[in-house]
Each structure stands twice: as C-alpha cells, then as structure tokens.
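pasting for ref
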Amino acid sequence: VQLQASGGGLVQAGGSLRLSCAASGRTFSRCALAWFRQAPGKERDLVARISMLGYIYYADSGKGRFTISRDNAKNTVSLQMNSLKVEDTAVYYCNAGRLGIDYWGQGTQVTVSS
C-alpha cells in the first residue's frame, strides 16, 4: 500500500482544513486507517483511527473537532479538522495497517496561526 497525503496548509486559529490521503493497492479496504501527527521535537501521536469495519477512535486532542472518514471505493481516507488551534500545528501522516504491517504517507504540514 502506498499513501499520498495532501490538504495541509496555513490557517488561522478557529479555521478548518481537510486532509486527504490517496492509496494504491488492492488491500486498502482491509486496512485499518489512521492519521497521526508530529510536532517539532515531539513524538508522533495518533489523532484518529477508523477500522476496516468503520469503527472510529479519536484521541482527546481532536475529539469533537476532527472527523475521520474513509471511502473504500476511491481508496481514500480523510480528516476534516474544524476549530483548529495553534497546538494543532504539526506534520500530519496518514497510516494504513494490516496484519501487523504499517504503511505511511509522506506527511503534510498543517500550520495554525494565532
């Protein structure tokens, strides 16, 4: 599975961004999909995950503000981010996992200004 993330950019606090990740590979629909983020000097943290069956988990950081979704027909996973905060600034990575193997996209920068 190869992943290509897009949609990052510069936005003011309170604004919104939608990240998308396009995947290649026939096993996409059988993967758990997730978005992680990594701020400078910090570890990469889980933001949201959606299972193969559509079960969703949000980390506290994005709960109530972020929405993860997947479209298996289009091989995409998206992250709608609303009410963005300065502390949401990070590089965001999409992830696909299956049978203990993780696949990563290249990351897209999200910068939230005050």
